């Protein structure tokens, strides 16, 4: 009897797992993916969607990128019954022999009051709405000649990449519409960071280069500034406030709420997994991507990134080849980061790659290559030209 494998989520982790399953696995099991959307998207490129930046294909139809033997269910998961091995959705239920939870991330508020007064770059749909809001507010600002102020809460990778893209977009629009300098100077982008310097995992020198490039683009950076609450159109600090026409929250993420709402033990919707990516004490449930907490061997956990999510997917597919054949799989999951690249506009980036630090066009090119490599995994050679 064919075993039933259910996958929740079509982000980097879930799709990497499904794309890495070989034909024999698909002959031995009925594989179903449950996802609320009919598509997969580059979540690391959502800042470009939020500023309507034309940068190639970002969204991919699941029917086009997945093996035809994989059943696609477009529904939102409402509950996981671990005891009876059932995944429940809005309009049905699905039994499983093995469950792979790759449900992705949600906004982490850190208990900041008034978080509903901000928008979040968390999905393709949310990011598209931000682009529409910016377009509308820009039009209103031109008509009223009042300018536009955008406040971005969070100085991590997403926040930095978004403010850079946003500053470039506003400059292009002001130049295109020939807006006078006395008005264009009122189009402002603020980056609010809780740390004394940006990207603290970079060296002090590389962090300064990141900040300098942002400032050259016109971004105003508020370092070492903790947000106490958000009101409509106002970001509040312990010692002051900042008014804004649009507040964007990029201060952090947590795993999907389907995990925190379940009975399984978790921390910020991340489940501690063993060396084979199974939930501790489980033999049939695997957690990968943003919902997994993988030990880094030093008393902590690896941060959830696209890089580790993709590697988890590939590793788990290798493991399933043995699981479905009834043989023992003993190779533990080991992760070694290749580094981090932070895009700052179209052709500039700062990076720490393979132990080397660099800034300028080269790391920007490297990031483009990484993105194209993922496209090739999804669609074959034609993905390189998208």
Structural summary, described in words:
There is one protein chain. The chain is an alpha/beta fold and 386 residues long. It folds into 3 domains: 3-107 and 253-337, FAD/NAD(P)-binding domain (3-Layer(bba) Sandwich), CATH 3.50.50.100; 115-249, 3-Layer(bba) Sandwich (FAD/NAD(P)-binding domain), CATH 3.50.50; 338-385, no CATH class. Helices cover 32% and strands 26% of the residues. The chain is built from 11 helices and 25 strands. It has helices at 12-20, 23-28, 46-50, 62-65, 124-144, 157-176, 181-184, 204-216, 257-260, 306-325, 361-379; strands at 3-8, 29-35, 39-41, 59-61, 71-74, 77-81, 86-89, 93-95, 98-101, 105-107, 119-120, 148-153, 187-192, 219-222, 227-231, 234-237, 240-243, 246-249, 253-255, 271-272, 285-287, 292-293, 339-343, 349-353, 356-360. It has a 5-stranded parallel β-sheet with strand order 5-2-1-9-21. Strands 11-18-12-13-14 form a 5-stranded parallel β-sheet. β13, α8 (204-216) and β14 form a beta-alpha-beta unit. α1 packs parallel to α10. The radius of gyration is 22 Å and the shape is globular. It starts with a strand and ends in a 7-residue tail after the last helix.
> What's the CATH class of the largest domain, please?
Alpha Beta
- Trace the largest sheet across and list its strands: 5-2-1-9-21
CATH architectural arrangement of the largest domain = 3-Layer(bba) Sandwich
Please estimate the helix content.
Answer: 25-40%
CATH topology of the largest domain: FAD/NAD(P)-binding domain
Q: What is the alpha-carbon Rg in Å?
A: 22 Å
Number of helices: 11
Alpha-carbon distance between the termini?
Answer: 41 Å
What structural category do the secondary elements indicate?
A: alpha/beta
Give a short account of the largest sheet: 5 strands, parallel
Please identify the oligomeric state.
Answer: single chain
């Amino acid at each position: 009897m064919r075993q039933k494998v259910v996958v929740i989520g079509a982000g980097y982790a879930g799709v990497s797992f499904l794309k890495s399953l070989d034909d024999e696995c698909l002959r031995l099991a009925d594989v179903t993916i449950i996802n609320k959307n009919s598509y997969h998207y580059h979540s690391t490129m959502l800042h470009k969607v939020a500023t309507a930046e034309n940068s190639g294909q970002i969204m991919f139809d699941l029917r086009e990128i997945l093996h035809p033997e994989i059943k696609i269910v477009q529904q939102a998961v409402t509950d996981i019954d671990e005891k009876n091995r059932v995944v429940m959705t809005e309009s049905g239920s699905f039994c499983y022999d093995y469950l792979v939870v790759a449900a992705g991330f949600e906004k982490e508020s850190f208990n900041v009051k008034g978080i509903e007064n901000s928008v979040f770059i968390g999905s393709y749909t949310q990011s598209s709405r931000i682009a529409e809001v910016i377009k509308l507010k820009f039009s209103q600002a031109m008509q009223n000649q009042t300018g536009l102020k955008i406040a971005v809460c969070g100085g991590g990778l997403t926040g930095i990449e978004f403010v850079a893209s946003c500053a470039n977009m506003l400059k292009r629009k002001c130049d295109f519409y020939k807006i006078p300098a006395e008005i264009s100077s009122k189009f402002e982008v603020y980056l609010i960071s809780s740390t004394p310097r940006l990207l603290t995992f970079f060296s002090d020198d590389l962090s300064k280069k990141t900040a300098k490039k942002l400032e050259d683009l016109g971004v105003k950076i508020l370092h070492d500034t903790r947000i106490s609450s958000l009101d409509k159109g106002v970001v509040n600090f312990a010692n002051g406030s900042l008014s804004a026409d649009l507040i964007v929250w990029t201060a952090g993420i947590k795993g999907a709420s389907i995990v925190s709402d379940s009975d399984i033990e978790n921390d910020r919707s991340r489940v501690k997994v063993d060396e084979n990516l199974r939930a501790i004490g489980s033999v049939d449930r695997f957690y990968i991507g943003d919902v997994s907490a993988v030990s880094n061997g030093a008393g902590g956990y690896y941060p959830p990134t696209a890089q580790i999510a993709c590697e988890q997917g590939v590793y788990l597919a290798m493991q399933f080849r043995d699981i479905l054949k009834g043989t023992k799989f003993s190779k533990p999951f080991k992760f070694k980061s290749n580094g981090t690249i932070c895009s700052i506009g179209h052709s500039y980036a700062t990076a720490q790659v393979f132990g080397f630090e660099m800034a300028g066009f080269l790391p920007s090119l490297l990031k483009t290559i990484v993105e194209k490599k993922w496209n090739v995994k999804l669609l074959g050679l034609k993905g390189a030209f998208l």
